[in-house]
Write a structure and sequence with these properties.
Blueprint: E1 6-11, H1 24-33, E2 38-47, H2 51-61, E3 63-68, E4 71-81, H3 86-98, E5 107-111, H4 117-127, E6 131-135, H5 148-159, E7 163-166, H6 169-178, E8 185-186, E9 204-206, E10 209-211, H7 212-218, E11 225-229, H8 234-237, H9 239-252, E12 257-261, H10 269-277, E13 284-288, H11 292-301, E14 304-307, H12 317-323, E15 328-331, E16 343-345, E17 348-351, H13 357-367, H14 374-385, H15 387-406
Helix pairs in contact: 1-15, 3-4, 9-13, 12-14, 14-15
Amino acid sequence: MSSRLKILHVASWYPSEVHLSLGNFVERHIEAVAKVCDVEVWAPIPVKGSMSNILKMRKKNGTEIREMHGQTWTVRRLYHEATRPQLVGVARSMASVASNMDWTPDVVHVHVSHPAGSSAVAWAHKWKVPVVLTEHWTAYHDFKSVPWWRRRVIRDVLKRTDAVCPVSEDLGEAMTIAAPGMDASVHVVPNVVDTDIFKPATLETLAGVPVGHARRRMEKHAPERILHVSSMNDDQKNIAGLLAALAPIFDQNKKLKATFVGGEKAGLESYKSWVNDHGLTDHISFTGPLNTEEVVKHMQRHDVLVLNSRKENFPCVIPEAWACGLPIMSTDVGGIKEHLSPGLSERGFLLPKDATATDWMNAWNQVRQASWSTDKLRDYAKKHFSPGAVGASYNKVYQTVLASRLT
């Protein structure tokens, strides 16, 4: 009989036929837990359209057997008809599985409080097991803008949860303000980076002589290649502001190149037009969405990752870059300062939240003269964000909430 804890993960966000990438960071958290615990995943997914379409989705990947780290587990995508209110469809889809279970979890782990949290908490209380909640949602920072009925539902979930695991301290503080009656213990557990995939480029040699970008890093050349990776959503990522901040830097440094990765290609035209109008087409390129392997290659070929976000929790792209040996330039938003000190530091440069073009120029002039240890950047990423580190952190949380039930 396995001595590993049995964890039932209930995910409000999870990759599916409806949205291929929604909740991919939740999926990585669960994969990390699977290293140390037995897991099963339930992901209630509303579908707009006919019942025949829902049945097709259920048949295609409604139940999936995953295998990783020498472990196997079941993922149940609970495709259901989109309803109003949404909680009804979620409750029905979960009840259809829960009522036929032949096992009881040791812990129910909810990922994102709404909409799956209410039903998950109800079933956990029926089974008399503790609830752990991981939260990623940036809306806690402006909770008053959330509809009143949703705020009420979320607060109820938080008050009935044993432990809350925000992905940053900043998010945890926002949650305690949003739900002042929350009695759960708070344990910050960051997002996961697969450090076996995100890693520095292998040193290439020609006739025994190092060549390529890995050689440039080894010889500590001044940075010439800037990378940005995001959804390219201007409301959050402030792409227009970043382009405007970079323009004078390019005027001063004619060898600089920047690559912007992400976003839907159809939505990039306004950015491309801006670049063309400002005569920067030789300096700035846009790739559109890329798969993980392609993102890794770009990180291995560039010198620094830049972010100019208006709001964040702690974006996965930062530790992914560190795992590849890239320093970061970022604005001070969300939980980024928890891992990147203000000003110039050994992991990059943290600018003010509302950094101006002058701030960016001054920061860049310091960054271009600094040197960076690829090994130190990668070691930091492995220590804090690797699957092993995150899996161990969650296992400690599970043990804590179970022990508290015995006292």
